[in-house]
Amino acid sequence: MRDPVRLDQPLTAAQIAAVAHGATLSLSDAAQGRIAAARGIVDALIDRGIRGYGINTGVGALCDVLIDRPEQAQLSRNILFSHACGVGAPLSATEARAVMAAQVNLFALGYSGIRPVVVDHLVALLNAGVVPLIPARGSVGYLTYGAQIGLLLIGEGMALCDGKTMSARDALARAGLQPLTLAAKEGLSLVNGTPCSTGLACLALDRLASLCDWADASAAMTYSVLGQQAAPFDDTAMHLRQAPEMWQVAGNMRDALGNHRPAILPDRTQDPMSLRAVPHVHGAVRAAMRQAAEIITRELHSASDNPTVGGTPDAPKVYSTAHAMGNSLAIALDQMAIAAAQLGMISERRTDRLVNPLVSGLPAFLARDSGLQSGMMIAQYTAAGLVAENRRLAAPASLDGGITSALQEDILPHPTSAAEKLHRLLDNLELLFAIELICAAQAIDLTTGAPASPAIARTYRHVRRIAPVYADDRPLNTLIQAVAEMLRQPALQPEPVPA
After folding, report:
1. Name one Pfam family in it (predicted).
2. CA 204 and chain centroid, separation
3. For position 323, what pLDDT does the model report?
4. Between β-strands 308-311 and 316-319, what pairing exists: parallel, antiparallel or unpaired?
5. Which residues of 136-155 are buried (b: 16+ CB within 10 A; e: fewer)?
6. What pLDDT score was predicted for residue 492?
7. For a Cys-Cys bond, which of 31, 41, 340, 458 suits 27, CB 3.0-4.6 Å?
8. How high is the pLDDT of residue 262?
């Protein structure tokens, strides 16, 4: 069970990920005060008849159409129905929770002007394990995801509760809640801003950080079988290059390998690049991840909806800006995708060296009875296919552009699409590491029969608890999938090594 998360100052990416994975969320008095104060400013804007986008006007290309006060609540409701236009399979419950947590974080900054009761409902739904069904496709930024969350609040649409699909009204009842009637601006607040892409970005950052540890563990296990260079990860040599993340990976490799030197092949002057460049490639991924984390942290501290409100009830201000544009976030997510794709690419190259009898010095395709058995031959095919798919998924969404709302919104950064395809890429990355781990474990069993060090033995045991020695005696994909799912279990993570 994850520790509860309390929102006082802006949440961290790690806290968003914790809520996504089931941690409960609560708001401090200070956070609740900021939400209430912002709502007081919206009420003052309405009372004074000050024009505010989506408060007393239409939205998008209809921003100059004035909405009378009696109809402003209806506008909020209408926005949810018209913007609930996503299609395709839904987000997972974990992904939906990440989006909702980021949404609460945005409202708690105190610039959105949504009523406290709406935020209280969002928190109560999270803590009750209730999320809306959010179709994952068709969002150019944020609108469709947020609309589905808003529909749940008003008792419309479908929801997930304890893994079961049910109507929104039934799900609200399970959580002990009544459907809300939204007030002015709240419909727009619920569909606006970058919490959709920010929440998914926090979750992706958490997943990639975990997979970086597994990448080092996988590489060390493969190197223990194939590596022949005397000191490829020497600390002095590594520090000749100014790359702290590379130093970290090199240290992880040294600690994992211990004093082991494999003896399958004669000593090499240089190992192949996919073996000796592990610190350089894995380290570059960690560096990209650190840079992305800085962008994500800034996003969590930023008011990203439109409009935002400020001033006081006596002197209310409304700011119509482009803060909902997630360009920085989209670029950061695209960079993470490229980095993660490289991590999978080098893993596949190591897998090929394990199964390829032309270079491995091991039984062909790691089969016990070559010819009668194909061993891991087709597992490498699968890895090659996944790497090719990742190459396509790493194409930048931030350059897709697009024109919507009758030229009113005539440039789009696509951060939510960037986040969504990054998660698909990370799914593939888990499978790629699963294939490498199964092949490396098979190579150990066909050679020394014993792991080379305590750290490698720990990784080997994780694999062998799920995937026994392979003898063409079962569908190989079942083992690959089982090991990939293991990589999502925090309790089985390799112990991180300090830099």
Report:
1. Lyase_aromatic
2. 2
3. 84
4. antiparallel
5. beebbbbbbbbbbbbbbbbb
6. 59
7. 31
8. 57
Q: Are strands 135-137 and 164-167 parallel, antiparallel or unpaired?
A: unpaired
Whole-number pLDDT of residue 97: 98
Distances (CA, A) of 9 to 111, 141, 441: 14, 25, 46
Name the β-bridge partners of 66.
Answer: 57
Q: What are phi and psi of 415, to 5 degrees?
A: -65, -35
Q: How much is the CA Rg of the chain, to the nearest whole Å?
A: 26
Locate 400 and state its tokens.
């897709």
Q: Determine the Cα–Cα distance for residues 452 and 447; give it in Å rounded to an integer.
A: 11
Cα angle 97-102-108, degrees, rounded to a multiple of 5? 125
What are the residue boundaries of the structural domains of the chain, listed by start? 5-192, 201-492
- Does this chain's domain 5-192 share its CATH topology with 201-492? no
Question: Tokens 């894995």 identify what position?
Answer: 282
Does the N-terminal peptide bond of residue 468 adopt cis geometry, omega within 30 degrees of 0? Answer: no
Q: Which helix (H) or strand (E) holds 282?
A: helix 278-300
Question: How many CA atoms does the CB half-sphere of 284 hold within 13 Å?
Answer: 14
String of b and e for 59-86 (b: at least 16 CB within 10 Å)?
bbeeeeeebeeeebbebbbebbeebbeb
**Regarding the domain delimited by 201-492, which CATH topology (the fold level of the hierarchy) does it fall under?**
Fumarase C; Chain A, domain 2 (1.20.200)
Write out the two tokens for 306: 């439109």
What is the H or E stretch that residue 252 is in? helix 244-257
5-192 placed in CATH 3.30.2090.10: no
Angle between the 327-355 and 415-446 helix axes, to the nearest 10 degrees?
A: 20
Cα distance between the two ends of the chain: 28
Instruction: Return the residue matching tokens 């739904």.
Output: 125
> In a 3-state reduction of DSSP, which class is residue 369?
coil
59 touches 329 (CB < 8 A): no
- Phi (first) and psi of residue 131, to 5 degrees: -135, 155
Which residue in 218, 223, 442 sits closest to 347, CA to CA?
A: 218
Residue 479 in contact with residue 466, Cβ under 8 Å? yes
CB 211 within 8 A of CB 430: yes
Torsion angle of C-alpha atoms 66, 40, 323, 288, degrees rounded to 10: -150
- Which among 116, 122, 118 is positioned nearest to 34, based on CA atoms? 116
HSE on the CB side for 430, CA within 13 Å?
22
At residue 265, the pLDDT reads 52
pLDDT (tens digit per residue) in 61-75: 677 777 777 788 888
Name the one residue in this structure whose structure tokens are 């080092």.
216
- Report pLDDT for 109: 98
- Side chain identity, residue 490: P
Residues in the chain, pLDDT under 50: 491, 495-499
Q: Give the dihedral of Cα atoms 177, 182, 188, 192; nearest 10 deg.
A: -10
